[in-house]
């Protein structure tokens, strides 16, 4: 790497990091999801604004190829790995056994119907104009179905935390349903991405050794490998959980010259925990690459099972890893997502409006149906339907992974990202309005029956 390339890499990372944090903080002050601000920061530096005003400077600072582009791509990949690792950790932390019947019914109905409608959409509407260079229509079908059905845990949990309802039964149901949905959909996403990873330019690992090609054989292989990898990871997580539960607690190293260098029997310090966690995430990602499935799937499962295997009283690895992940890698990742958006040349307003409306109606209607089937009142079911419609981070990750794998083109990539952004903003605005109208209780207000559960007190127009 020459000095010029090194300068461009440092300058581009600095600008992306500053833009992501500044815009993220601005959006947080406006009571909007910071992730949308981070994407906006990258959007301002991309072809939609900077490239429009100074195309030569923008192209020199953010080249599409070369060592500087490779450096940005590496940070981008590490960002998505850490994001999915933290998402897995958060899923286990928020899962609740309360309202089990309602959670299962809402999850099944709210996932199966949108997924099926997404499959039907591809058959009814000609989407050949948005298929990517990979030319795999089956993978495109799975991606669109997941984009319709997916729900964002990080964004909706942040919205509910900001609104002061994160500790309510409503929040527990929303997050528990989202956990079940996203675990299943991540398996489907891994299959879709794996199907386009075995071509002649990417012949590597188990698919190449086994001669896995395309068609039904590729679908069966990647589905089987994804499920088996999930089962093995779950088995390891369960085993570690039993071992740590049986291990007696040992006090951490106290202050002194040997602090941070644990003796025999003492638990390692935070620095060692971070190193071990990141090494496991990278190892799982590498294993997935060898198996022909997306590395983000391995990072997600490691996060899920790490939280599962953590014993009582042990420090939370999320706290150790979250600092540098959310301070640098994840904001830069979302800024690069915004950098890739081209609202000048790759934006189809009609496609964006039509797909967003379709996804919103199908997802919200199915969640509402599942909630009513589970015995929820009309106002409560409506609040659940809007909250579960937020696609946020997972929707954006799905779009970027599919775009990087050449399953979708730039136009559909822009549509999917904007759909995730719009639905997240809609969810935040709706829930804030529901709280003002007394249709949702805040934390600590559930000792009396929530207003939303007393249908006789609900205004007629809200029913």
UniProtKB/TrEMBL annotation:
Predominant localisation class: membrane
TM ranges: 6-28, 35-54, 74-95, 102-125, 137-161, 173-198, 218-240, 274-300, 320-339, 351-371, 407-431
Membrane topology: Multi-pass membrane protein
GO molecular function: antiporter activity
Origin superkingdom: Bacteria
GO biological process, one term: sodium ion transport
Cell compartment(s), UniProt: Membrane
Biased composition (Basic and acidic residues): 442-457
Cellular compartments per GO CC: membrane
Low complexity biased stretches: 251-262
Keywords: Antiport, Ion transport, Membrane, Sodium, Sodium transport, Transmembrane, Transmembrane helix, Transport
Region feature Disordered, mapped onto this chain: 247-267, 442-463
Residues covered by the Cation/H+ exchanger transmembrane domain: 18-432
Family under the similarity heading: Belongs to the monovalent cation:proton antiporter 2 (CPA2) transporter (TC 2.A.37) family.
Protein name as it appears in the record: Cation/H+ exchanger transmembrane domain-containing protein
